[in-house]
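Repro:
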Amino acid sequence: MKKSVSAQVYDSVLNDIFSNQYRPGQILTERELIEEYGCSKTTVREALVALCREHIVRSIPRCGYEVLRVERSEITDILEYRYVLETGCLARCFDQITPRHILRLEELNKRCCDPDFAKDVWTHWDHNAAFHLELIGLAGNRYATQQLQSAMDTLKRAYAQYYWGMRDRVETVSDMKNHQALLEALRQRDLSAARSALGRDLKDFAY
């Protein structure tokens, strides 16, 4: 299904935040966005309202829309939440994980480790997110999957703020070591080791 114009504007503004074209604290105005995207005031406002709803920007009356920073305390809270959410879902479905499921996770992890991602940090990010979403999806709880997606969307903005241009290929490849440990724990049917690997993986999001 083709996205609405307001949804396209939403995506464009969000991508500009990821690329640091729009930085935390910067003020966006409806007039500027109307000129940039060549669309109506109503369309731009719909996109900005959606961004406000997601706490990506906030409206400042008679001024514009401020790009919000993801604070470090929020990052810590999200990572703690992710640990509880992901390890809880893993424990719930652990006995039902099959070799076929593990094979699928291995395929996704290979994409994370593909050296081509060094050319595009966001390709790596998306492959890493796909790995975690696939894993939590094994629990069969769509709400939990949606919550993880929302958490990772916020962390992606945080990654843009704190890490853009700072992490090199070697560091990014090394942060997949815990995926390998997790996969080995799944093959060995060791839930404790799998939970530990997940915990270490999340701690790699340091700042």
